[in-house]
Backbone:
């Protein structure tokens, strides 16, 4: 081929184009991201606050690291742990830790630190509300400086995945800082994460700055992350549209639809596992009669509900697992909308039915509550709404001071922890006081087997039982949303409903 | 400014010409008062007769006709859950007026009696009453309302009692102040000289003269309580759904302010007009009873 | 006159103590109506009856009410307001961080109300019974009938979302960036000031009308002083008596308005703290907050009374 001026020019243009296209997607250093979350964050010390909600987890995602992380395909990848093995019965897991990692206060991250974190949470003298979520763990010990061994009470096939989200029991705090700061640690936490906490106004926002000693070279891209609690969903939405915040956690379908039509915003969604549900307290008549519970289910037109109120963004759930669980159950016997059947069952029951429905006092809770109340009133059930604040809601759920309530199974890699907690006879979290020997047996089987097919079969059988007995009514499977300004890249998938901007960056265009 | 002439010269003349109530220019008093009174009468009639009017069911949801703008099947549109706004506003007006009437009524009945007694008796009784009033007034009212509704629940009767309780100290103060003025009058002294009992004097001489200013206070309290109930709704502790008050409708309508502002504005206009009317009428009553007081 | 005033102030301040005691005792009693909740909240999934009882004992919640109150009071005197059950944050530290926010909000709102109310009041007094007077009075009545929460929402929609002129929420501390701080306070302040100026304007108007009729004003005019000078220098001071009273009353209302506005705009102030503490049954924080708000409220009343005594025309003009 002849090398003419034209061909050189063409080659130059092509090369430039190639370079440009390669660098156009490259991560850009610097900038800051403000995350709008729903709830105020009470603190980070597990012993003080017991559990992290979505707001705290968004902060924890940048402040701490966990042993593993899930990539966008859902595969478990190394983070603070570089590799892992398990015993044949899946009851013992050994993790090799990454070398050279330091906490933000300079102390080393090692197996002793990991073991110390678990010891502190599990110790019965510490009365940690978090200990409940660690009930499967017998003990965690440091085999050597860089090796941690988990001894479990029952097999856990998915342990590495379960350790990935920044929940209260998965993140690691600097033992030295805890010792030094004592009561102050709760609001002055120290982790190994890409950002460290530099300021926190009481009731206001948390400001994080990049951790210069972060173990992952080249990360983080941002200089600053701000986590701002914004309880009012209107204000959150208005703020992201106006650009006052860069990304928000949001769950209101009307706004999601509007955001999709807005060129300045990006909507990210994650069809997750788990479910939100209406819960019956089986110890309160007439809810102890399965006909009443089934009637209430038949009265609910969930299709219309999801099509209209949820703008069709989700579908009614038929089981508590959902599309994000990775498996599908067929023929689970889910009931559908049939008001005639509802009335028949109620007539069979004979006595008039009057019930109180406990909902959260927020606009969303009240709106959904009124819709379901209208469904039930339409078939002749008298329902009174009982709006209460979040704290009272949780309290009354645990002590059984409610007739109809609500609860949620959140997105986790494995259904076992929550299904067992929520439906096993005698469990503290079994707020519906449900007791079914067959379900108990199936839960034990699913817990103690490593065979995936058998586990799936057991969970589908459990779903069938629950769809018949209806201690809980599934409403929708979890579908998580975040709304962000256009140009924000590198936001991780919203596993466990965490808005994770630890590796985010701003595109140049 | 040309104004000072208007003030300096004609003032002396016009003042003796006819007694004019302070606070409001004369003409506005006339027209405004009557329009306000008319609105209140209409509102009361419509709210009381809500069940008789040919309105759709205010609680009936049409999930596929949510947030419809005014016009068509629904005269004022629908709210976020597909319920007819006209029906809801009328029923909401009824609830707001009920709370706005019963709470101050309780406050004026209880606080008025206590204040009257305190003003008449004086001495220790007066000191005790005023101290009680001061203590209750020193308490941040919204916090008290919050704690009480959080404890006792948000049933309509609770809200009425709680808001009434919060208004009692102000009623005591006003009643006492007015009583003090009246108790000095000659006809009271005369009645006492004639040997009338204290109770008789309080009921026959003092009470009739206290009623008009207390009515003005009552109407202002109505306006304040209607607004306060809305404030409770903003914190999620107003009247329990599906029952709605004007305040809770505004609070709920906030969520759709951008896409469907009528959901918030229809009840807002209704509340605004009602509160405005109450203020105007109260002011007129106050001017009539005590020209030197005027607007405050 | 000096020591009489001092005695007056002293007497009023002494009055403060029983009021604060009674109010906090009441809060304590109200808060204690729900004893189990705090322990249940803290234990969450661990809330077995045995554990709840143990934690209640550990926190001293099973002591008789008067004992708990006495303990808290004792701590108060040494400056220990206790530690929040929910966050582990010392209550005094939380109050110290939040008080400036609320104080700034209220101060700016009152200033805004004055900035609107005083000129408009004087205008109405000077142009009595003209179209301007009637218009402003109508406007005053209108604003009096607006709940601050509705105004907040409307202002947010126009100024923040539609025109993007001001931020819709969020708070920047004054020390960090004064300009950004003022921008973040603009909408909350406007929502309060626009509702609080009417009483000021109307009272000032009616008082000034009286003053402007008095002999010394006629004298000033006869002397040929300019109308503006008369208004501002000679007429305003005597008329400010009632104005001061109304400001005092206003500040009381402002406390309530500030709570709602703080919640709507997400300002981390005392009002928001009180609401959160009530809703999460964080009684230690609630009591500490109530002490501060009560103290502030009563101090304002005392100041108003003092100013009233100082400005009392009988004192100022003597018998002349």
Residues:
């Amino acid at each position: 081929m002849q090398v003419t001026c034209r061909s050189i020019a063409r080659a130059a243009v092509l090369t430039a184009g190639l370079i440009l296209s390669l660098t156009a997607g490259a991560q850009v250093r610097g900038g800051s991201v403000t995350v709008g979350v729903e709830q105020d964050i009470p603190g980070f010390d597990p012993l003080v606050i017991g559990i992290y909600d979505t707001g705290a987890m968004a902060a924890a995602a940048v402040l701490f690291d966990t042993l593993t992380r899930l990539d966008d395909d859902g595969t478990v990848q190394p983070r603070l742990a570089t590799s892992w093995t398990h015993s044949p019965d899946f009851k013992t897991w050994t993790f090799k830790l990454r070398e050279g990692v330091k906490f933000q206060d300079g102390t080393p991250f090692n197996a002793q630190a990991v073991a110390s974190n678990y010891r502190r949470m599990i110790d019965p003298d510490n009365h940690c509300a978090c200990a409940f979520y660690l009930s499967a763990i017998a003990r965690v010990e440091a085999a050597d400086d860089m090796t941690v061994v988990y001894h479990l009470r029952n097999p856990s096939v998915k342990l590495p995945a379960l350790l990935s989200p920044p929940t209260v029991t998965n993140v690691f705090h600097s033992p030295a800082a805890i010792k030094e700061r004592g009561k102050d640690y709760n609001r002055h936490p120290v982790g190994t994460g890409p950002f460290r906490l530099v300021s926190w106004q009481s009731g206001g926002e948390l400001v994080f700055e990049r951790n210069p000693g972060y173990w992952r070279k080249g990360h983080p891209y941002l200089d600053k992350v701000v986590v701002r609690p914004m309880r009012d969903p209107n204000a959150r939405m208005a703020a992201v549209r106006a650009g006052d915040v860069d990304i928000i956690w949001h769950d209101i379908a009307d706004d999601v639809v509007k955001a999709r039509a807005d060129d300045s915003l990006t909507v990210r969604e994650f069809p997750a596992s788990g479910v939100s549900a209406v819960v019956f307290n089986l110890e309160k008549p007439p809810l102890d009669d399965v006909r009443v519970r089934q009637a209430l289910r038949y009265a609910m037109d969930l299709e219309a509900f999801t099509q209209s109120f949820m703008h069709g963004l989700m579908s009614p759930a038929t089981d508590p697992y959902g599309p994000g669980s990775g498996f599908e159950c067929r023929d689970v016997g889910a009931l559908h909308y049939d008001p005639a059947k509802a009335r028949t069952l109620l007539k069979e029951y004979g006595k008039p039915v009057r019930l109180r429905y406990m909902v959260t006092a927020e606009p969303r809770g009240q709106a959904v509550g009124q819709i379901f109340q209208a469904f039930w009133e339409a078939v002749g059930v008298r329902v009174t709404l009982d709006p209460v604040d979040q704290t009272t809601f949780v309290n009354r759920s645990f002590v059984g001071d409610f007739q109809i309530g609500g609860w949620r199974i959140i997105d986790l890699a494995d259904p076992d922890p929550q299904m067992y907690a929520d439906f096993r006879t005698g469990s503290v979290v079994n707020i519906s006081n449900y007791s079914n020997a067959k379900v108990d047996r199936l839960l034990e089987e699913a817990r103690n087997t490593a065979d995936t097919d058998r586990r799936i079969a057991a969970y589908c059988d459990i779903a069938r039982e629950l769809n018949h007995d209806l201690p809980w009514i599934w409403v929708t499977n979890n579908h998580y949303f975040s709304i962000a300004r256009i140009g924000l890249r590198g936001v991780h998938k919203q596993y466990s409903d965490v808005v994770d901007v630890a590796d985010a960056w701003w595109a140049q265009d | 400014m040309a104004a000072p002439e208007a003030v300096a010269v004609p003032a002396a003349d016009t003042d003796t010409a006819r007694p004019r109530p302070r606070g409001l220019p004369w003409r506005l008093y006339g027209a405004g008062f009557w329009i306000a009174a008319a609105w209140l009468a209409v509102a009361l009639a419509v709210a009381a007769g809500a069940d008789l009017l040919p309105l759709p069911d205010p609680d009936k949801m049409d999930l596929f006709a949510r947030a419809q703008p005014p016009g068509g099947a629904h005269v004022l549109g629908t709210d976020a859950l597909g319920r007819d706004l006209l029906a809801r506003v009328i029923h909401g007006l009824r609830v707001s007026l009920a709370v706005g009437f019963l709470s101050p009524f309780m406050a004026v009945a209880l606080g008025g009696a206590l204040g009257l007694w305190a003003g008449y008796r004086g001495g220790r009784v007066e000191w005790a009453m005023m101290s009680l009033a001061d203590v209750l007034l020193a308490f941040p009212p919204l916090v008290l309302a919050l704690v009480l509704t959080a404890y006792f629940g948000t049933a309509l009767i609770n809200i009425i009692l709680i808001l009434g309780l919060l208004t009692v100290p102000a009623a005591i103060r006003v009643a006492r102040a007015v009583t003090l003025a009246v108790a000095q009058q000659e006809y009271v002294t005369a009645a006492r000289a004639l040997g009338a009992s204290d109770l008789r004097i309080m009921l026959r001489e003092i009470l009739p003269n206290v009623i008009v200013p207390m009515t003005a206070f009552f109407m202002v309290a109505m306006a304040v309580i209607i607004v306060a109930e809305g404030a409770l709704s903003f914190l999620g502790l107003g009247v329990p759904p599906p029952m709605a008050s004007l305040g809770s409708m505004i609070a709920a309508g906030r969520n759709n302010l951008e896409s469907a502002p009528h959901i918030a504005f229809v009840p807002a206009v209704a509340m605004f007009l009602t509160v405005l009317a109450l203020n105007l009428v109260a002011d007129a009553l106050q001017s009539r009873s005590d020209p030197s007081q005027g607007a405050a | 006159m000096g020591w009489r005033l001092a005695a007056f102030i002293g007497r009023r301040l002494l009055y403060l103590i029983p009021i604060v005691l009674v109010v906090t005792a009441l809060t304590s009693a109200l808060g204690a109506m729900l004893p189990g909740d705090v322990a249940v909240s803290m234990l969450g999934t661990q809330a077995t009856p045995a554990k709840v009882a143990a934690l209640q004992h550990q926190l001293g919640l099973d002591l008789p009410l008067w004992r708990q109150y006495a303990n808290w009071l004792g701590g108060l005197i040494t400056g220990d307001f206790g530690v929040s059950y929910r966050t582990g944050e010392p209550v005094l530290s939380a109050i110290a961080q939040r008080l400036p926010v609320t104080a700034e909000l209220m101060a700016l709102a009152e200033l805004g109300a004055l900035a609107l109310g005083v000129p408009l009041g004087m205008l109405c007094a000077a142009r009595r019974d003209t179209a301007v007077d009637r218009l402003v009075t109508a406007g005053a009545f209108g604003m009096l009938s607006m709940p601050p929460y509705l105004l907040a929402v409307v202002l947010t929609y126009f100024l923040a979302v539609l025109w993007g002129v001001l931020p819709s929420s969020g708070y920047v501390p004054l020390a960090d960036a004064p300009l950004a701080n003022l921008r973040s306070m603009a909408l909350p302040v406007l929502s309060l000031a626009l509702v609080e100026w009417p009483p000021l304007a109307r009272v000032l108007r009616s008082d000034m009308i009286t003053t402007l009729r008095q002999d010394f004003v006629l004298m000033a005019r006869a002397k040929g002083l300019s109308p503006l000078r008369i208004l501002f220098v000679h007429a305003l001071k005597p008329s400010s008596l009632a104005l001061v009273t109304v400001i005092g009353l206003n500040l009381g209302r402002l406390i309530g308005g500030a709570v709602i506005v703080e919640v709507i705009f997400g300002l981390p102030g005392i009002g928001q703290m009180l609401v959160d503490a009530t809703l999460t049954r964080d009684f230690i924080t609630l009591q500490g907050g109530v002490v501060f708000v009560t103290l502030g409220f009563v101090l304002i009343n005392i100041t108003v009374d003092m100013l009233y005594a100082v400005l009392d025309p009988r004192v100022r003009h003597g018998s002349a």
Q: What stands out?
A: DSSP finds 16 helices and 18 strands in chain A. The CA atoms of residues 239 and 245 of chain A lie 6 Å apart. The mean pLDDT of chain A is 89. The longest helix of chain A spans residues 5-24.
